[in-house]
Recover the amino acids of this structure.
């Protein structure tokens, strides 16, 4: 809205992580205005509209987006998606739901909890961390049977329960 009104907002530069930028070719659906098609794998906080603008500026041709499709976010990809129509037709969603631990993929460390440490976490008490992690690091607290029991936060060399999922609280 601001751009359409002719108001320019200065954007502060910030580092972003582009893991992959691939030229896929030209979309010639409109032969009078062909569009370049890119596939980008990037980190969180990357503004693709700004990237398109910056690429156009570097190439000296100007650029903007005509379409944007997110095909992946973290552990999830569009190929795994289920349409609302499919969900509406399903009587049992258990085959399409993804657990919290699976959704986080390999993004967070996993802390296996058993015995007294598991009991401590389930009752909101911190437990010693076997490996040092920077404060505020989040981890999955998994029971020996593979059930997610807590999201833990590193504080002063210990794991502090951030969110606890006691047995029987599977939703």
């Amino acid at each position: 809205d601001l751009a359409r009104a002719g108001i320019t907002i200065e954007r502060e530069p910030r580092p972003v992580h582009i893991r992959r930028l691939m030229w896929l070719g030209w979309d010639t659906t409109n032969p009078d205005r062909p569009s370049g098609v890119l596939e980008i794998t990037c980190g969180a906080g990357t503004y693709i509209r700004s990237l398109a603008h910056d690429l156009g500026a570097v190439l000296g041709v100007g650029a903007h987006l005509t379409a944007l499709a997110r095909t992946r976010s973290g552990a999830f990809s569009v190929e795994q998606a289920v349409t609302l129509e499919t969900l509406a037709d399903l009587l049992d969603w258990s085959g399409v739901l993804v657990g919290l631990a699976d959704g986080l993929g390999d993004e967070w460390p996993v802390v296996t909890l058993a015995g007294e440490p598991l009991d401590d976490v389930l009752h909101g008490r911190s437990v010693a961390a076997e490996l040092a992690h920077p404060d505020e690091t989040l981890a999955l607290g998994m029971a020996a049977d593979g059930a997610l029991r807590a999201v833990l936060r590193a504080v002063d060399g210990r794991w502090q329960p951030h969110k606890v999922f006691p047995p029987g609280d599977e939703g």
